Amino acid sequence: MPVADDAAPVSAAEAKTLFAPLVRHSAVVLAVSGGPDSTALLLLMARWQRALKRGPKLLAVTVDHGLRRTSAAEARAVKALARRLGVPHRTMRWEGKKPASGLQQAARDARYGLLAAAARSANASAIVTAHTLDDQAETVLLRLSRGSGLTGLSAMARESPLPRHGIILVRPLLDVPKARLIATLERVKITFADDPSNRDPRFTRARLRELMPSLAREGLSARSLSRLAGRLRRADAAIEMAVDEAMENLCRSCADHRRTLINADELVRLPAEVGLRLLGRVIAHAGAQGLIRLGKLEVLYEALAEVHASRTSRLRRTLGGALVTLSGSKLVVERAPPRRSRSPAVMAGKRHRRTSATRGRMGPRN
Questions:
Q1: How many domains does the chain have?
Q2: Predicted confidence (pLDDT) per residue in 7-65, tens digit
Q3: Half-sphere exposure of 202 (CA within 13 A, CB side)
Q4: pTM higher than 0.70 for the full model?
């Protein structure tokens, strides 16, 4: 797309193409905070739906986190705009005590939980968000700074499941620059909220956002970073297919499905990335604690390869709730046994012995 188009409003024809995959849903929730991106999403989707003979029902949902004094007024402004556009609206509030640390992540988790609850009550099968090209580029940089692997650097997909909620997240505006959404609103004189936390240097994403103009001058524009994410996503999908095939050939579950046996000779002959992912999948399944941190998985995989090459020792380690045992060419991954809990009497005896020993060293207390 020519650079000149990066500040042009989004046309009705473009919106029709962007939102076409949503026709299969009977109802969708629009996540509308009141900022420029989500306000433009509300406007464009309302217009798109009106032009359809038969389209999904729309429900605009605003999550009021209660973190800023203006948040309630912003939710009311979204409700007023939604009414003008003929879209039902609902405000969901994040109740309870807010954490002192990790506030942004907690707020994000709360937002998606409330959006999912609203979707379930409306029988909606998808939540539509207004993530833009700029958001995608920032996500690539954020994950790069945190040492993410190939999957993480693939950033956001156009559609993805919302973990633990059984609903689909749809991001139809991922290829659209934020400037075009602002231009869309300015053309029809629709105002939007300005969240100062988007510029707060305490937050990593805000600091990265400040770097974007300088990076763009060096060739790392939002569009080029987003293109990189797309290419990495293609490579990631190809590797995942190779892992599927390797698991069929190398892994064998025991009758009770609580243990997986792997041919270690064949495992170490796989391309390292395929072997690493295979091991991660099996551990995640056995331990039932979710995804394993890449750095910890890499350490274990390297240790397995080293022990296997030596042929003189045995390895036994736990990771993610799973017990991994290598003996010769046999690798066993199973649920780790529960940690032994010490009885109150044993713990009391140990405390008594430590106290007596300490008093003996320090002398009697007068």
A1: 2
A2: 899 999 999 999 999 999 999 999 999 999 999 999 999 999 999 988 899 999 999 99
A3: 7
A4: yes
Q: Are residues 322 and 179 in the same domain?
A: no
What is the average pLDDT score of the chain? 89
Residue 36's domain comprises 3-231
28 and 159 housed in the same domain: yes
Six-digit token string for 310: 């030596």
Query: Do 279 and 130 share a domain, yes or no?
Result: no
Q: Whose structure tokens read 């409003």?
A: 9
278 plus 188 within the same structural domain: no
Q: Tell whether 52 and 184 lie within a shared domain.
A: yes
Rounded to the nearest 10 degrees, the angle between the axes of helix 294-310 and helix 272-287 is: 110
**Beta bridge mates, 324:** 317, 333
Q: Could you tell me the sign of the dihedral formed by the alpha carbons of 120, 126, 130, 131, in that order? A: positive
**Pair 32, 39: CB distance under 8 Å:** yes
Q: Which two tokens stand for residue 262?
A: 């792997």
Q: Note the pLDDT tens digit of each residue in 286-295.
A: 988 888 899 9
Tell me, yes or no, whether 140 and 259 share the same domain: no
Of 247, 180, 144, 229, give the one whose Cα is nearest residue 18.
180
* Angstrom distance (rounded) from CA 95 to CA 64: 9
The whole-number pLDDT of residue 347 equals: 55
